[in-house]
Amino acid sequence: MLSPHRYAASLFLLAACQAGGDGETSRSTIRDSSGVTIVQNSGADVALDWKLERVTTVGGTGSTVEMSQLTEYTVDADSLGHIFVIESWFGNRVQLIDTAGVLVRTLTRNGAGPGEIGQGVSVSASGDGVLSVMDFTKMGVVRLRFDGTVLPLLPLTGYDLFGGGRVTGDTVVFHTIDRSTKAYAEQLQYRTDADTATLAVHTPERLGWLPFCRDGMEGLTPMLAPELRWTARGSRAIVSRSAEYRVDEFQASRFVRSIRREVPRAAGNVHAVKRFFPEGKIIGSRDCVVPPAELVRKRGVAPVLQPIRRLAIDWEGRIWVERNTFPDEVSRVDVFDKAGHYTGTLSGFGAPLGFPSQDLLLFALPDSTSDEPRLAIYRRVN
Q1: Of all helices (H) and strands (E), which one includes residue 7?
Q2: CA–CA dist 272, 354 (Å, integer)
Q3: What domains are defined for the chain?
Q4: Residue 290 and residue 268: Cα distance in Å, rounded?
């Protein structure tokens, strides 16, 4: 059964959005701290006066496009109208889709040769139509043009890859982990042919052996603990990794801006865990579903819910910040201009998964499931 917020969001997105809302007018205060611009945004949510119309839906029963997962790592689009979808996490087939939702061609296949993929964990597209796939097997980036032309592999030797990557030219921003220490610190790395830098380090609390069901697991974190959230476009990267509503922005390897906003904060407790996992959470194998109370008793829980779930940057430089709402709430995404000033909030969907043009956006449909994910293409008409 669909949760209430997913059912409501699937009916319609933004037809009733009006600028100004009922809340206090948003305002920004700018100050400088050791060369870093701090943009403090205050005021209640303001609904954007944008109207979005659905163009088409991709995926689901009868679709020619295969998707087993739909995340910011498995979908992206260039600014030329090409949409790239990898069929699964650790997948090897990238499908090229046009803006009408039609499958144009399959660009990659399983293998170790040029342009082939072993374990693809993320796709990213640059504005000139180049597709990049982070490949765990090759320990590097497989690159192709949208017409299938294979480009040289970008090796990432010396790094222990952990998550996805964003690539433009020789610029790679990617998620790694330091396995040389017990803390297993996560890192966001910036790399070009001429420069390397660590943009952010996130060291979550790792727990020892915890018994669950017939076995157990080690290295888990407390429930609802902050995670490293990030994205990049070109040499610009943004990061969030704490219980604060804070988005740190980097230009190349330099920390240049910190964007803040005042939003209500939710306490971390058994009730919060139950709202996220009302039927319990799978630990290890699918036959091990652990109730919320047991999860909190054994793993503990963060005192405050991380306010930011996902980030995106569009081709015009706007920053999209998806709030970490509960499943029984309507999803919300805050939009900031390129300088970090809050411009308003959209309700009903999270941050877009791609931007095929200035007026097209890709969203995971709110009523998608892991068994049947569906991607929607929307057009902004005002």
Answers
A1: helix 4-11
A2: 30
A3: 4-380 (2.120.10.30)
A4: 18
User: Which residues share a beta bridge with 132?
Assistant: 124, 143
pLDDT in tens, 328-348: 999 999 999 999 999 999 999
Q: What is the pLDDT of residues 204-223, one digit of tens each?
A: 999 999 999 989 999 899 99
Query: Could you tell me the two tokens for 357?
Result: 């043009």
What pLDDT does 21 receive? 40
Residue 25 has a pLDDT of 64
Distance from chain centroid for Cα 64: 25
The SS3 call for residue 327 is coil
**C-alpha distances out from residue 296 to 84, 211, 222, 245, 283, Å:** 39, 13, 8, 24, 13
User: Which of 154, 143, 317 lies closest to 238, judged by CA?
Assistant: 317
- The token pair at 174 is 């990617």
**What is the chain's alpha carbon radius of gyration, rounded to the nearest angstrom?**
21
For the chain (382 residues), the mean pLDDT of every run of 10, in chain order, is 38 35 65 88 93 93 86 94 92 95 95 95 93 94 96 92 92 93 90 95 94 92 97 97 97 96 95 96 92 97 97 97 95 97 94 95 81 91 87
Size of the chain in residues: 382
A 10 A CB-CB count for 12 gives 11
Q: Scanning the structure block, which residue is given the tokens 């008409």?
A: 381
CB-CB contact of 207 with 299 (8 Å): yes
Give residue 60's pLDDT: 82
Q: What is the pLDDT of residue 188?
A: 97
Cα 101 from chain centroid (whole Å): 21
Rounded Cα–Cα distance for residues 290 and 209 (Å): 16
| DSSP letter, residue 24 | P
CA-based nearest residue to 10, from 260, 303, 376 = 376
Q: Compute the distance between CA of residue 71 and CA of residue 304 in angstroms, rounded to an integer.
A: 25
Residue with tokens 């050791």: 34
- DSSP letter string over 191-228? E-SS-EEEEEEE-PPPP--EEETTEEESS---BT----
